[in-house]
Design brief:
Blueprint: E1 4-7, H1 13-21, E2 25-28, H2 34-40, E3 46-49, H3 57-60, E4 68-71, H4 81-86, E5 90-92, H5 95-114, H6 117-125, E6 143-147, H7 151-160, E7 166-170, E8 183-184, H8 187-193, E9 196-199, H9 213-217, E10 223-227, H10 236-245, E11 248-253, H11 270-274, E12 279-281, H12 290-308
Parallel strand pairs: 1-2, 1-3, 3-4, 4-5, 6-7, 6-9, 7-8, 9-10, 10-11, 11-12
Helix pairs in contact: 1-12, 5-7, 5-12
Length: 309
């Protein structure tokens, strides 16, 4: 089979240009459905996707000549990685493309929480001028704990370096990674010293539901909680209970276990979560800036070209 790539999601034109310059044939079908892709995928040796559908074993079985799956994004949770490995299908992603966007967004959410920016804005819209009630916290001198120190964790640490904070990081799968921006620590040190807890890990069988009541129980100090990784990692009712008890001062979510309406609005915890003034939620856009749109496509294109050449 000659090399031919099916692109099933919207991507920046730089990806198409780089494939074309490398002489790699492709079909760009950003409006294609999974059912339509299933009928065509046997003709291709590679697929580029973002989050349109699950690339599971059933889908891969329709593509005997598939040699790679590329995701124009960081996380790979919509791809059955184990099955792909069993088929010797190479997986490609682009965490370098949106790491700066995620770092900036989550830092912004933290600063908003610490200074009550969303709440005070709403109060002023309602003609309330409450200064003492909106006295904020300074980030300087606090300990920020990062769970995971890959591309996103490292970018977050670098963004925080100008705030005179103590950044510590725990990564179960890495050792010896201390650098000028963060110090490697054990999980015991994280729960003892953290003032801010920020997650930068993928969603896997091991991390699904990891942040539950038991996980949060061990923290010694009240924390600011940041979830910008994957929503399936966290049990939202456990966070709500810890907000009630004061163990979590405030929480920010760019991702949730269930996303998009109407399904999100049907969750039993949704109304409670959104009723709280010390909770900030954004619609899974931390890694989705105008700049990252270009960078994600450029990075994945370069990796695809390198793989095929």
């Amino acid at each position: 089979m000659s090399t031919k790539v099916l692109i099933v999601d919207d991507v920046h034109e730089v990806l198409l240009e780089k494939l074309q310059d490398a002489g790699i044939a492709y079909d760009y079908q950003p409006d294609i459905t999974r059912a339509e892709a299933e009928k065509q995928i046997s003709e291709y040796s590679g697929i580029v996707i973002r989050s349109k559908f699950q690339v599971d074993s059933a889908f891969m079985d329709l593509a005997p000549g598939l040699s790679f799956i590329a995701r124009s994004g960081a996380g790979m949770d919509n791809i059955d990685e184990a099955y792909a490995a069993s088929r010797n299908i190479t997986l490609i992603n682009a965490p370098e493309g949106n790491r700066d966007a995620v770092g900036e967004h989550m830092t912004g959410m933290l600063l908003s929480l610490m200074n009550h920016l969303n709440r005070s804005h709403q109060q002023i819209k309602n003609r309330q001028w409450l200064r003492e009630e909106n006295r904020g916290y300074e980030l300087k001198g606090r300990t920020v704990a990062l769970i995971g120190y890959g591309n996103n964790g490292q970018a977050m640490a670098k963004k925080l370096s100008g705030f005179d904070v103590n950044v510590i990081a725990y990564d179960k799968y890495k050792t010896g990674f201390s650098d000028e921006y963060a110090r490697e620590v054990s999980m015991e040190e994280v729960v003892k010293y953290a003032d801010v807890l920020s997650f930068h890990i993928p969603l896997t069988r091991e991390t699904k539901g990891m942040v539950d009541e038991e996980y949060l129980f061990h923290f010694r100090k009240p924390i600011f909680f940041l979830m910008g990784a994957r929503g399936g990692i966290v049990d939202i009712p456990a966070v709500l209970r810890n907000l009630d008890s004061g163990r979590i001062i405030a929480a920010a979510f760019d991702v949730l276990p269930v996303e998009k309406f109407p399904s999100l609005g049907e969750q039993p915890w949704f109304a409670d979560l959104m009723s709280r003034e010390n909770v900030l939620v954004s619609p899974h856009v931390a890694g989705w800036t105008f700049e990252s749109y270009y960078k994600l496509s450029a990075v994945v294109a370069e990796k695809v070209v390198t793989f095929l050449k």
